[in-house]
Amino acid sequence: MNWTILQWVLLLASAGKIHSRALRFTVLEEQEAGVKFGSLSTTYSAPYRLLNERYIRVDESSGDLFTKERIDRETLCPSKQDGNCTFSNTAVVSLNYEVVPMIIVVDDINDNAPIFERNVIPLHIPEDASIGTAFPLDDQAQDKDTGDNGTIRYYLEDSGGFFSIRQDGHELELVVQRELDREIQENHLLVLLAVDGGSVPLSVTANLSVTVTDVDDNCPEFDADSPTTAIVPALGVKGTAVAQLKATDKDLGQNAQIAFSFSRQISDRAKALFHMDGHTGLISLAVDAQVDSPEEHTLKVFANSPLCPPAQTQVTVYMQPVTSPEPSVKIKFVAEHKNQVIVLQENEPPTVLALLELEDTSTANGTLSLDKDSMPFSLKPQAGSYLLSTSKPLDFEMCSEYEVTVIISDPHGTRLHRREVIKVLVEDVNDNAPKFEQTRYEKDIRENNEPGVFLLRVQASDADSQQFGKVRYGLSNEGPFRIDEETGVISVVESLDREQQETYVLTILALDGGEPSQEGFATVSVNILDLNDNPPTFPTPHFYFFVSESLPQLAQVGKVTASDSDEGENGRIVDVRILNDEVPFAIDLVQGSLRSTGEVDREKQDRYELLVVAVDGGSPVLSATAKMTIFIEDVNDNQPRVLLPSSNLSCLTISPATRAGSMITKIYAIDEDSGMNSDITYQIIATKPTLHSPFQIDQHSGNITLVQHLRGEDYGMHHLFIVVRDGGKPDPLQSTVWVNLLVNETLEKCHVNAVPDYSPPPLPPPMPVKDCRCESNAWLIFYCGLCLMVISVCVLLAVVVVFMKHRKTKRKVEKKDVWETGNLCELKPLN
Fold first, then answer.
1. Which of 465, 470, 457 is nearest to 522 (CA)?
2. Sign of the dihedral through C-alpha 172, 178, 182, 187
């Protein structure tokens, strides 16, 4: 087919029928197939055909152009992002096969969001960058759309006021807005937002990570814990550390390097005794040092850094002289001890700990005493020695370790020889029960929770140590709750239902690690908060009511109530209404009842099928519906309506030869009521003339029959005044009608010109309804009953005879009685 068309094109080209001017059409990209975007019929006549139908098609008769498939401009023209995207086609039109070139321009829509190549864009800015300095951002977003759809604007978020974004054409720069300080904040994480210019803009974000680089803008400072005093013991050895100085510079790398040095103002003696390590700040002995008397040296030290004034500090060094031996204390432990440390359990009564002996290596005597802060201990002389003991029971929880200071002085207390420290460790015993932070917790949780949800964490502490103070948790009544033995975290393992239980009281048990363990208790009251998870409910899904059609307006039909097992607003019924439109009933919300709002007529509608809805006040709102059937009971509010005869002036001609018993005509009436109220009877009240009428009416069927042969005196017009009654109680309703019968030899149609002038007496009461079947079967029933009575008497007499004969054989002395019995049998013919 294409080869044939090509041949036609070549043929037409050679014939000069190819138009040099191309038609231009525009179509939006991403259109559904079958969208019309132009027509060839405005310029050329049918038929129409296309050489290529890849993207578009043409209706051969109308010339309308339609899309054949979705056209993606970015796929069709990937290299023409900023210009028009077009494709060509050729149409063959009219009966002369004219060739028309076409150019279809694909217009862009905003179907591509901007894209960053990297999710995180790094940028380094020195901390001394001045305010207003701009740093170019090479990582810009790209958008495949064109025009406004491909124009991108940038915004900066989470900058904290330090930076702003500046866009100048295609240049994007980050501008410093506040002073930067690497030592305060080294990294700034910003959000760069790119938004295109479409009518419905699309956007993308990237994280802009700004690292503030260091400059040498901080000077060294000596640390607060750098030593200011030092003691050099007697017989100091060369290289012994005297003091370790500490200084810091907040900068990084080379900018943070510090050089330590002595001031030139220190004494020559100090310069000879001490050495300063310029890198570490360590002061050590430069020579072996031994002095006969105490010496004190003040060392002034500098911490130097480039471009900074030196930081300085001062260290005072005390040199101790070599002294002669002084008195010492020999300790003989009485209580348990480990590595020269006394170990005593808490709560022990006052106990002797050790025997202290003074070893005097000189000619001077000494005495022992306790430092004033060595409480609760006492030291008592005992036969040249001293007894060290506790003065009261020790409590581990108050203090677990004591340092008892023993002072050695001369007998007069004027010279202090030395101090001796004796350590006493107090061992813990399990004398404390765990204690909760609070003895009662209260927690609220909404019902219908997810199983395993966190409720709360309880915490108990034990003043004892180690194993004695390790607390485990438990629940005495778990139910739907669990507690983590180690952490005290209470979780809810089941979904709770407030309608089943509103409050749970948990008893939390805390056990320590002693043997036996001690216990602590706390209670947790868990209140289940209500959710609107229960819709209203009616007491029955289907209400049935029976009302009389004479029901007055606003009368109560019956109770219609609804309940909701939720609480508060969730359980409050805010509305109960009937969904049916235009019904004579409404719900009384105050009384909770159904009431009539209009007239009901059984003859128009004998029942109402309603749908009632109950709505609660929760959020979200829940509702429930129930059916309601209202049966309308009949009242006798419609009198019988006579359909036949249709008028009081109707007339019927009867031949005198009509046989007795023939049906002459029929009265037909209807009553729109139901039941007994629509049970119709017919009765002839009067006749004109007043002579005995030869006609009779069946009170049930309304059939009028001839009850006797017509005679000469019966000739002429007979007017029958008939009452039609219904069976309503207590007062039936009735209608009347005249039946006009003409007895005549000729059967010509008769006419009645006026209703007979007749005033009937008060209407008699309705005739009792007779059951013809009972009258016709009365004699049959009588004879059947009589036969049954005779049979019953005979059976009775036979039983009596058998009984008497049996007695006769046993008791012959009662013959007289038997004879009387025989006389009784002779009475049988009387029946």
1. 457
2. negative
432 pLDDT tier (thresholds 50, 70, 90): confident
pTM: 0.43
pLDDT at residue 322 tops 90: no
Of the residues 715, 745, 761, the one at which a domain ends = 761
What pLDDT was estimated at residue 760? 57
Q: Is residue 784 part of a domain?
A: no
CA angle centred on 323, ends 317 and 324, rounded to 5°: 165
User: Do 696 and 661 lie in a common domain?
Assistant: yes
**Pick from 296, 319, 342: which residue ends a domain?**
319
Domain contains 227: yes
Dihedral angle of Cα 683, 689, 692, 698, to the nearest 10 degrees: -20
Q: How many domains does the chain have?
A: 8
* Same structural domain, 736 and 657: yes
413 confidence band (pLDDT: 50, 70, 90): low
pLDDT by residue (tens digit) across 270-317? 888 899 998 899 999 888 887 777 888 899 999 888 778 888 899 998
Q: Are residues 308 and 406 in the same domain?
A: no
Task: Compute the average pLDDT of residues 125-144.
Answer: 89
The model's pLDDT over 178-211, given as tens digits with 9 standing for 90+, comes to 999 888 888 999 999 999 988 889 999 999 999 9
Euclidean distance between CA atoms 26 and 450, whole angstroms: 57
Rounded CA separation 156/165 (Å): 6
**What contacts 24+ positions apart, CB below 8 Å, involve 95-100?**
95/45, 95/47, 96/17, 97/8, 97/12, 97/17, 98/12, 98/17, 98/18, 98/19, 98/44, 99/9, 99/12, 99/13, 99/17, 99/18, 99/19, 100/19, 100/22, 100/23, 100/40, 100/43, 100/44
Q: Which two tokens stand for residue 237?
A: 């050895």
Do the domain assignments include residue 349?
Answer: yes
Is 781 contained in some domain? no
445 and 492, same domain (yes or no): yes
Domain that holds residue 151: 120-213
